[in-house]
């Protein structure tokens, strides 16, 4: 008897990292759930991927809708989901005081509550599969990043939740991790009209395909050999190491310099 096809539920799948990840997993024979607020985008992607793609419109801030989408996706596989990829997120940059409060709240709702909603609702299906949660974080969760203050804070939240659940859910056979890249060449970053100086100083050296490859490794490598935080690219790894080893005042000075403040 052949093994059942593995499955991954992807939020924010219509573009960028979510899209690249869906294509990567589909190419490996996985059943892929393409969920996004952009229904036309995921339908177009599903047409390119083929019959193993499942499509749905999803606002990750709606906990009821998230729970239903997961239940519908898991129904054909006897209630199992192998991987939940909490990828949906939004970005705004600029000085904190210049950002409308409503936009700050939107960042918090989508980038943090969306991840909580996903983890909470997916647990029953992950328990059956002894599955995995991969949360999309950011190198801005290494040290608070000027011009990304609220976005950076939401990624610190994701980092903290990931670390806690990595310990808590190990007893359930569930591996929880996050991916923390520096700047990635995606529509989300391209849509930022006035790029912060840190983007110009550090450059955009990672592609969506690079991150998709890391997500695939996080989904398939033995959990005992896998980190809590995946750091794509040498530049990201160097930044994380520097902030870990140098005194806090030097880490602050470095981040201030790179950000042009």
Care to describe what's here?
By secondary structure, this protein is an alpha/beta fold. The protein has 10 helices and 9 strands.
* Shape estimate: globular
Q: In the CATH scheme, what's the topology name?
A: Rossmann fold
CATH H-level superfamily? NAD(P)-binding Rossmann-like Domain
Gap between N and C termini: 61 Å
| Helicity level | 40-55%
Looking at the chains present, what oligomeric state does this protein adopt?
single chain
Gyration radius over CA: 18 Å
Strand order of the largest sheet: 3-2-1-4-5-6-9
Descriptive tags:
single chain; 261 residues; alpha/beta; Rossmann fold; seven-stranded parallel sheet; two-stranded parallel ribbon; 10 helices; 9 strands; 14% strand; globular
Brief summary of the model shown:
It contains 10 helices and 9 strands. With 261 residues, the chain is an alpha/beta fold. It has a single domain, classed as NAD(P)-binding Rossmann-like Domain (Rossmann fold, 3-Layer(aba) Sandwich), CATH 3.40.50.720.
Strand and helix map with partners:
Layout: E1 7-11, H1 16-27, E2 31-36, H2 39-49, E3 53-57, H3 63-74, E4 83-86, H4 101-129, E5 132-136, H5 149-168, E6 175-179, E7 184-185, H6 187-190, H7 197-202, E8 206-207, H8 208-220, E9 229-230, H9 234-245, H10 248-259
Parallel strand pairs: 1-2, 1-4, 2-3, 4-5, 5-6, 6-9, 7-8
